[in-house]
Amino acid sequence: MALHNPDFTTDDDDSWDNSSAEFEQRFQLGSEMTSLSRSASSEKYEILDNLHVKFNLSKMSRYFSILFGIYPDQGVSWQMLAVSPLESFSMNLTDFHDSALLKLDIGGPFVADVVDQQAEDYILVQISQTEDAGSRRRRQQQVVYNWSLPLSSRRNHQIITTRTFQIPNRGTIFINIQAFLQEPGSVPLSMKHQYLHANIEAQVTIASIILVGVYVLIILEIVHRTLAAMLGSLAALATLAIVGERPSMVEVVEWIDYETLALLFGMMVLVAIFSETGFFDYCAVKAYRFSRGKVWAMITLLCLFAAILSAFLDNVTTMLLFTPVTIRLCEVLNLDPRHVLIAEVIFTNIGGAATAVGDPPNVIIVSNQELRKKGLDFAAFTGHMFVGICLVVLVSFPFLRLLYWNKKLYNKEPSEIVELKHEIYVWRLTAQRINPASREETAVKCLLMQKVLTLEMLLRKKLRTFHRQISQEDKNWETNIQELQKKHRITDKILLIKCLTVLGCVILMFFLNSFVPGIYLDLGWIAMLGAIWLLVLADIHDFEMILNRVEWATLLFFAALFILMEALAHLHLIDYIGEQTALLIKVVPEDQRLAVAIILVVWVSALASSVIDNIPFTATMIPVLLNLSKDPDVNLPMKPLIFSLAMGACLGGNGTLIGASANVVCAGIAEQHGYGFSFMEFFRLGFPMMVVSCTIGMCYLLVAHVVVGWNS
Hints:
The chain crosses the membrane at residues 202-220, 227-243, 263-283, 295-313, 378-404, 494-512, 518-540, 552-574, 594-612, 685-708. Keywords: Membrane, Transmembrane, Transmembrane helix, Transport. It holds the Pfam family CitMHS. It comes from Athene cunicularia. Residues 215-648 form the Citrate transporter-like domain. The protein is of the alpha+beta class. Among the domains are: 79-198, Sandwich (Jelly Rolls), CATH 2.60.120; 415-484. Helices cover 62% and strands 9% of the residues. It contains 28 helices and 8 strands. It has helices at residues 12-16, 20-36, 40-50, 53-70, 200-219, 225-243, 249-254, 258-274, 279-290, 295-310, 315-333, 337-352, 360-367, 369-373, 378-403, 415-432, 439-465, 477-487, 493-515, 523-537, 543-548, 552-570, 573-586, 590-611, 614-630, 638-651, 661-672, 679-707, and strands spanning 79-83, 89-93, 101-108, 122-129, 142-150, 159-166, 173-180, 187-196. A 4-stranded antiparallel sheet has the order 1-8-3-6, with no helix packed on it. Helix 9 (279-290) packs antiparallel against helix 18 (477-487). It is globular and about 90 Å long. Mean pLDDT is 79; it is low at 1-48 and 467-475.
């Protein structure tokens, strides 16, 4: 980094050979002077500290840790059994004490993605119970629950299904399992049961409180969003332990989606090496030249290109490639990168909804075998969604311009002052990351803080010299283009060729993975192999420099978020949302049921995807909507419900900062470059865009399915 004060030098003897006490005094002096120049955001943290918020968080984390530690892992073992039409399996349960729920896990050759559907071959599980054993007159056992599980033709294919039953009274519970087969034979099964100490309503209430608490921590910026997700995960795991469903370490690790983490890590390494070539600076100048100096034309082109690319690539990959280019472009033009990045990520999420491979919820829908049998394949899904998303994009651009009408995209200070402020931020951040565990590290931190103080003095002089003025759009853009082209060039053409070759192969494999069935590599594997390949070709010696550019906080946030969402799913929060949605649809009169169902599914999916991960929500809602469409009393077509789910789940990610993976990735990279934006900054722009885009998508679905009747 270029120094603004070249005369700033340090004497080696004074810097390194002084006593430890002298370094401590210098460090304390630097800390005191730095504290005088803190911004309003740091004052907010001081107020929160005075209110003992962080102290209370520390007490709560210790409390949850103790609760999680005192409840043991149940370690329930599986029971192997075999049933046939002539021989059933029965067992009695009397040791449930004051438990409220009975959780039953059954593994066998069941049909995937189908719930409670009668088939030619199926397994029937009956849960019956008698009155309390203390009563004098004992009644006959009564069947309380019937659970039907269709069998697959592939009897060596094992699928584990789980269901939770409420225990009505204190009487003995009887479990009877029987097979209904067209041909003689037996079916091997595995089973385990577990008692839970809280009913579903209590679990859903606690899960909702935990989710709201996590959002409060993120919205108020009391702690970093990564720590907020970790605290939420700890609270959810402690709740599961209290309920009686404490997971083991192996189960918790399995909840993490390692394919997503591998995709993020691999692409971060690729982008880190790519940035060494000067390619991002070159692209920034070319984009400025193509827009002919008009800022809004440039922003529109960036958003449109991001939307088109995310329709065929994963939107996370799109933002990993676009964010560095956008930040460098805004630095060149003295623009505030935050507003441009938020606009880009919004249109990335919109564009990803257009095809079957652009967003994870769409991939889950198209991969469902039951939906594929109904004719909802890649072409049918993409053809239907593409038309609606095109309408959404056409309306979203003018609305985005309206939202940005009074926002100053240009920085209010001259570019020299903006760069100096950013340099001070980077130096201070570097000093804060040094843990003074030794004399040398203390000395280095002292020198860095002295550097910060020197730059702050220089900044005050420049602020007194320059008058604050708002920059206008550059009228002499042709002259500036020539200067920018001389300043921002490709620095390493050989490395650029290697990077373009590897990145081109990675993107090509991403496309082929979606269409060619013979490729047995997931997106995470492709990104990791590409990163390893480029590390070898680029002959990277300073490996730690590349690792320092990886967004470890973002990766840890996703890992904690995956655990949090899976724990909330075990607390029945997601199932409860789906069941309540289905109940609301059933009570609507039949002539208005389809329109109400579309409206309800779109908005429930959008709002739910804004606050929870849309991947488990989509996976949970698919069987709910399938059963709803098969119910003869409801009489609803299947495709409008599924398209409503896809529209709401994809567009709802724009509602909050953690509503979509691309949002978090973009915020993490921007924060690493010194341009991080808060939850509320994203919410002020993202939530209105989500409301407008979901409204347009809902209107399109209503016209297509209610008015036109495009349900076949």
